[in-house]
Design goal:
This protein has 217 residues and is α+β, with helices and mostly antiparallel strands. Helices cover 21% and strands 37% of the residues. It folds into two domains: 2-55; 66-216, Glucose Permease (Domain IIA), CATH 2.70.70. The chain has three helices and 16 strands. The protein is elongated.
Length: 217
């Protein structure tokens, strides 16, 4: 595992704040039964934030025909939806919700070429709410496979997320299971796949990025 390159500053800031608070607790708070448990809690926050921003090593089960999960999390939507930004047609939308305890690194769902990418500013509604898909801050990416299939996905900011990182550039060749970005704090991924795809997940399923197959094209 490694720390995502765009999160060094965030993690160092967390360490610095916790270090100051620990110094104050140990130097100025008298009763050990107050200062030591709080210190342990702050050390746990440092560990949690480090793990949260890690890029895990995973088996890469996706391909140009198999759509793998972009992120760790829980399936909250599997439904027919009209993708109006670039595909402009009905698709199957599969949504993955990430909570505070999930790794937030994101990975390419299929092997192919990036045909579209765009950042869209917006609101910060709770990510599991339906309107978040249209109104929240998000980054959109479309990948065209060698077989001519298109897979479109959104990285959505949530109620606490304030930064989306996406490495996509138009014309870039990408490999399923390689890192494509990261979203900081609670957030969601919407994946739009063709109507004739064979969906392999259902609402309530827990998925692992790179390893869980979302659909077969």
């Amino acid at each position: 595992m490694r720390l995502d390159k765009n999160t060094y500053g965030t993690v160092l800031l967390v360490y610095a704040i916790c270090a100051v608070l620990i110094f104050v607790l140990l130097r100025f708070v008298g009763p050990w039964w107050i200062s030591w448990p709080l210190t342990a809690g702050l050390l746990w926050v440092c560990y949690w934030q480090t793990a949260f921003h890690m890029v895990p090593r995973r088996d890469k089960n996706g391909s140009s025909e198999l759509v793998s999960a972009v992120a760790d999390g829980k399936i909250v939507h599997v439904e027919k939806a009209f993708e109006k930004e670039t595909l402009k047609r009905d698709c199957i939308m599969v949504s993955i919700y990430m909570d505070f305890w999930d790794v937030h690194a994101n990975f390419w769902p299929v092997t192919g070429t990036v045909s579209y990418t765009m950042y869209n500013p917006g609101e910060h509604f709770l990510a599991f709410k339906p309107k978040a898909s249209e109104e929240n801050e998000h980054t959109c990416t479309c990948i065209r496979t060698a077989e001519g299939k298109e897979v479109f996905f959104k990285q959505l900011a949530g109620g606490f997320a304030r930064r989306i990182v996406c490495y996509a550039k138009e014309g870039m060749d990408v490999q399923a299971g390689e890192q494509c970005g990261i979203i900081k704090f609670g957030s969601r991924i919407d994946i739009y796949i063709p109507l004739d795809a064979e969906v392999k997940v259902k609402i309530g399923d827990t998925v692992r990025a790179c390893e869980t197959i979302i659909a077969k094209l």
